[in-house]
């Protein structure tokens, strides 16, 4: 089979790229062994976090790392048996957490994030799904007043992110349900959240298929250069086949590392295992997502339910879910809302995590027909349409993706 553009991965990044390429009149083939949008794109906190320019690794995080690893209620965990395989990634993470490196990552993320609002607004209109969008901002909660001298606050201030420090009384005015906790706040008024990430994924997929895309439920097992294009080896339904494509987009999220290696790029991608729990409620106590910062998760009001999503567990793709993480989320949510009902659902998925928190977007050296688009960490939903714009420009030859996102940045 021969195709113009083949996209490996049907999560939010792959679907956004497919829609954007269809805007340019291109024929698209989607390949994914799972249901479209069923991974991290389904289970995230539902926030379009245009304020999210602070990388995961910062000097403050580096100083707190020993405490985070030893604290049983820490939002960060790592199985000790996974340590040997994680050491190369962790070493890069430490290097990316120095002041100069963290500032450089933040600059790159901020540049990408400036385009999020206009880019998503265009896509909302095309999808006709405004009913899923809430423009209520996002609220961080703190036990002690956050310092304007903190690294992350100064970073956002320098990069022009709209943020407001709030007193406990101001927090109570925004969210009366947390008034009795007397928490200080940091408010991001421009943030947007989605009331159903699953419905958004379904709508994106339907639009892609209405645009004439082909969808193949299969696993890509091999990738190599052939002429000016590429050949993909695929496996499905106990069969094996090959596909030729003029352009290949690797957007398989946490499953992208081996494909990138076959395309000639050794990218230090690893996996943050994210978790969520949900509570079915007739009346939601919140208008907007809140994040009790010391607990490292978001509580997001969605359609008929509260979703508590977050934590970071480094543990790869093969290990079973860790029930401790669900218990941690449930326990933390009940500190703020002690009358929550029994947990309705639990979920675990894989975030594609780069040590510098900057996604990989750009052409591969070994297979120039292959464009890499993965590694968005906590910003996959946020940066999906921006990534799609960059990939579309790369495919058409209008512009190259930013050098700071290049897969070759790890060769130095």
Description:
- This protein is of the alpha/beta class.
- It has 12 helices and 20 strands.
- Strand 12 and strand 13 form a beta hairpin.
- Helix 1 packs parallel to helix 9 (197-210), helix 1 (12-23) packs parallel to helix 12 and helix 6 packs across helix 12.
- The mean pLDDT is 94.
Oligomer: single chain
Q: Tell me the β content.
A: 25-35%
Distance between the termini: 38 Å
User: DSSP helix count?
Assistant: 12
Q: What general form does the structure show? A: globular
Residue windows where pLDDT falls under 50 for at least 5 positions: none
Q: Biggest sheet, open or closed, and with what strands and sense?
A: 8 strands, mixed
How many extended strands? Answer: 20
Fraction of residues in helix: 25-40%
The pLDDT mean sits at 94
Radius of gyration: 21 Å
Could you give the topology of this structure?
Elements: E1 2-8, H1 12-23, E2 28-31, H2 40-43, E3 47-48, H3 59-70, E4 76-77, H4 83-96, H5 99-113, H6 116-127, E5 133-134, E6 138-142, H7 151-158, E7 164-166, H8 168-174, E8 184-188, E9 192-194, H9 197-210, E10 214-216, E11 219-226, E12 229-236, E13 239-250, H10 257-262, E14 270-280, E15 290-292, E16 297-302, E17 305-314, H11 323-336, E18 345-353, E19 360-363, E20 370-374, H12 380-396
Parallel strand pairs: 1-2, 1-13, 2-10, 4-17, 6-15, 13-20
Antiparallel strand pairs: 3-9, 5-9, 6-8, 7-8, 11-12, 12-13, 14-17, 14-18, 16-17, 19-20
Helix pairs in contact: 1-9, 1-12, 6-12
């Amino acid at each position: 089979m021969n195709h113009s553009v083949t996209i490996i991965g049907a999560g939010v990044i792959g679907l956004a790229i497919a829609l954007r390429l269809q805007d340019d009149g291109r024929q698209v083939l989607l390949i994914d062994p799972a249901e479209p949008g069923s991974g991290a794109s389904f289970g995230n906190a539902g926030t379009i976090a245009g304020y999210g320019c602070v990388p995961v690794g910062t000097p403050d995080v580096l100083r707190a790392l020993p405490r985070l690893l030893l604290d049983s209620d820490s939002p960060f965990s790592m199985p000790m048996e996974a340590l040997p395989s994680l050491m190369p990634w962790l070493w890069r993470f430490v290097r990316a957490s120095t002041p100069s490196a963290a500032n450089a990552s933040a600059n790159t993320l901020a540049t990408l994030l400036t385009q999020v609002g206009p880019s998503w607004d265009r896509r909302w209109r095309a999808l006709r799904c405004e009913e899923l969008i809430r423009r209520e901002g996002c609220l961080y909660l703190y036990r002690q007043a956050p310092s304007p001298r903190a690294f992350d606050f100064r970073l956002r201030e320098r990069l022009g992110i709209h943020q407001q420090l709030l007193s406990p009384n101001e927090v109570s005015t925004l969210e009366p349900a947390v008034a009795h906790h007397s928490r200080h706040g940091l408010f991001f008024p421009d943030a947007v959240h989605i009331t159903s990430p699953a419905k958004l994924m379904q709508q994106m997929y339907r639009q892609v298929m209405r645009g004439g895309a082909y969808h193949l439920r299969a696993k890509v097992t091999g990738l190599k250069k052939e002429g000016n294009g590429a050949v993909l080896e695929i496996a499905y339904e106990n069969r094996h086949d090959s596909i030729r494509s003029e352009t290949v987009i690797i957007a398989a999220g946490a499953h992208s590392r081996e494909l990138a290696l076959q395309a000639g790029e050794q990218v230090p991608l690893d996996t943050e295992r994210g978790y969520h729990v949900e509570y079915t409620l007739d009346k939601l106590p919140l208008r907007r997502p809140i994040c009790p910062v010391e607990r490292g998760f978001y509580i997001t009001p969605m359609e008929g339910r509260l979703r508590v999503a977050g934590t970071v567990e480094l543990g790869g793709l093969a290990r079973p879910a860790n029930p401790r993480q669900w218990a941690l989320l449930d326990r933390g949510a009940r500190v703020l809302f002690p009358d929550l009902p029994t947990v309705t659902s639990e979920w675990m998925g894989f975030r594609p995590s780069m040590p510098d928190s900057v996604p990989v977007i750009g052409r591969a050296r070994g297979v120039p027909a292959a464009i890499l688009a993965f590694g968005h960490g906590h910003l996959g939903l946020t940066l999906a349409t921006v990534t799609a714009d960059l990939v579309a420009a790369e495919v058409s030859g209008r512009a190259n993706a930013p050098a700071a996102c290049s897969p070759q940045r790890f060769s130095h």
